[in-house]
Amino acid sequence: MRVKIGGKIKNFRTIWMKGKTVRMIDQTKLPYKFEIYDSLDFKQTAEAIKKMIVRGAPAIGVAAGFGIAQAILDAPEDRFEEFLKHAVETLRDTRPTAQNLFWTIDRILKIVIKGKNVSEKKKLAVDEANKIADEDVETCKKIGEYGDKLIKDGDKILTHCNAGALATVDYGTALAPIRFAHYEGKKIFVFVDETRPRCQGSRLTAWELSQEGIEHAIIADNAAGYFMQKGEIDLVIVGADRILSNGLTANKIGTYEKAVLAKENEIPFYVAAPTSSFDLKSKEIPIEKRSQDEILYMFGLNDEGKFSRVRIAPKKSQALNPAFDTTPAKFITSFITEKGILKPKDFRKLFK
Ligand code: MRU
After folding, report:
1. Is the overall model pTM greater than 0.85, yes or no?
2. CA 164 to centroid of ligand 1, rounded, Å
């Protein structure tokens, strides 16, 4: 992704591996500071996923893949299996809703088992983790190309949370079609849901769109209906954390409301996601519950430029904080994937 640093534009991936270190853009610091966080072992990588230094289902998946590679590189020969099992459990225990986390770990373990000795296993793990990261970039490009065809010159698009380059290795899912439409010279405008409580919309999506020079405005989460009623939104594109065979889609809390509102206002509602986010086996989606502090406090830069946290609720009030909700397929116009624009009936024949 393009990042302006000191007046110059540089290209960055969200996450990559250098030697044994996993390097990632620290998303807890954006938009205030652009910083790279270095994770030195699988425990730090698992912590980075939990604390949302890296976030967004595809990026979480890639981080977990690198975490497994780190664990395999560090595993002592005499306790290899035990060490790896502990690393797998630690990484799987970080973010329960993101399907890519489980998909990546299973994919790397299937490859590693083929290694005849520990040094072969190390090489296989690092190569596969890097391959998954590279594939994610290509996948998002394809999502961008397919999704771009759904956007007309002059369209105003609503998006929720951050399903941008920061949530993947590059380009994004929901933001990839928006990027491609912009690169083609289509005049577009993006309504960015603030996305309480962690404000991935106002902190991350707005930052990415600013870096690209894409026209946008942040709106309060409860303002989308107002703009839809006024006929100001032409289409909605969101990402996904997990999609079941019947099309039921988990995405950031608040997505369901936007989908219902879009149907009521006859506005197309698209979910953009790689096939690695599809879970055709499960019947239910586990929903992550996060700390109530994310709702009881707000944080940001104060007027002196200092990072600060303020309580915005009475001292004795409690909060409930489910991080995701689920949207039934009847509210989703289509799914934009790297294999094309799909309906749930297409899933089984396309994803093995
Ligand atoms: O809690 P987060 O920030 O990890 O949630 C992210 C989302 O809900 C994204 O929309 C989703 O992961 C798709 S990202 C391409």
Report:
1. yes
2. 9
